[in-house]
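As a representative case, the lines below give one protein's residues and fold tokens.
***
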Amino acid sequence: MSRTGSSPAPGAAPPSGRYLRALELAIEAARAAAAILSAEFARAGGPRGGGEHCPADLEAEVAVRERLLGHFPDHGFVGEEDAEHPVAPRDPELHAWVVDPNDGTRHFLLGRRGASISIALLRGGLPVLGVVLAHSAPLGGEDLFAWAEGLGPVTRNGRPLPELAPRGPLAAGDLVLLSPSSAEQPEASALATAPARFLPVASIAYRLALVAAGEAAAAASLQPLDAHDVAGGHALLR
């Protein structure tokens, strides 16, 4: 099995590493959350909730938490939906899961594509695993990014991505991914990202994943962020 559950190439050695099982479970958990959110997105009359709150977000977070802590009971857990009740890590290396079950809820509730599930595993505060799953990707279907320390390059939909060369300053033709509100201030956004171009994308986690895939030079947010917003993308960028 590969890190995303597909079969390895003939003759290829199966992947191994201390975080292999954790990555497999994180992908399973992301897919369980995606099933909940995809059903909500397609719900007759549109998703429930308003503003930045959707009941399906908590349902998705519970599905993720139960799977991860069920297999790693000594790990900590911090989720966006129940951030007031974090689970402290009890293992010696202080592993903790940091989860945003539906990054981009506001746009999800408006019926716009691009929200994502973000799952990260931190070891003593350092991201060592990241899974970002755009369950309603802009071009349809889903878009899954995954990585864990010691398990090779970032994968996208099961395929390893090439290593990116170090970058210099932004240049003409580069693309910077911004919050959707950037479209409401196009001139200011264009000036802020010049000489690059900018493109609005609903989820900061998905923006960071696309940068890790080499589809954009940089990503930024026009709103305040918390750890659950960026931890999964931070891991992919490592």
